[in-house]
Amino acid sequence: MANVDRTGFQPVENNPSEELKFTVDASSSTAMFVGDVVDVNAAGSVRPAAGSAPTQSVGVCIALYDSNGVPVGHPNSTVSTKYLTASVAGQALVALAKPGKRFVAQSQTGKTPAAADVFATTDLTNGSGNTTTAVSGHELKYSTLNTEGQFLILGKVEEPGNSYGVNVDLYVSFNESIFGPNGKSTGV
Questions:
Q1: 106, 6 in Cβ contact below 8 A?
Q2: Among 92, 100, 93, 82, CA closest to 12
Q3: Which end of the chain is less enclosed by CB atoms within 10 A, N or C?
């Protein structure tokens, strides 16, 4: 049976002490979805990460809100979609990319990871989110396997229907983030 195509990143464990809400500035020209890896933006805000921009990563978006703190898509929200469209201000609850924190991510569409890829490093491919389902398009970029180091592959998620091959779900940790030894402490 083929693996389920589940793009986007998610924390293995939700821990409120390792989550923070950040502003999403209207200057972000990219729509933001739950499951997107987020980077530092100007004035203390976050934005969806661009591929291969590793040291500015803050973590993974796990919830989105309008500027008043109302969940996007809620009838009382100023944002009618279940994602933040480009150039719309809001707030993102982020699972922080702290050392040792594990996330689940899918391999890049069309690539076939194998067990030999455990402990390899790779970067992000920042595919566009789906505006109908509000699902993130972020995946692990397999064309940079062991040549780029944003993420460290820790292994395959052991669950029925998930096997090495196309669309395998993998455990990863941020190898490079704002919280690591090479992280930057200033905005961009």
A1: yes
A2: 100
A3: N
Per-residue pLDDT reduced to its tens digit, 92-138: 999 999 998 999 999 888 788 889 999 999 999 888 899 999 999 99
Q: Any bridge partners for residue 139, and if so which?
A: 125
Q: Please state, in angstroms and rounded to a whole number, the distance separating the CA atoms of residues 105 and 42.
A: 27
DSSP the chain: -PPP---S-EESS--GGGEEEEEE-TT--S-B-TT-EEEE-GGG-EEEPPTT-GGGEEEEEEEEE-TTSPBTTSTT-S--SSSBPTT--EEEEEEE--TT-EEEEEBPTT----GGGTT-EEEEEEEEEETTTTEEEEEEEGGGTTT--SEEEEEE--STT--SSTT-EEEEEESS-TTSTT---S--
The answer to whether the predicted template modeling score (pTM) of the entire model surpasses 0.85 is yes
> What's the CA gap between 112 and 46, in Å, rounded?
32
Residue 4: CB atoms within 10 A of its CB come to 10
Q: Which residue has the tokens 């460290």?
A: 152
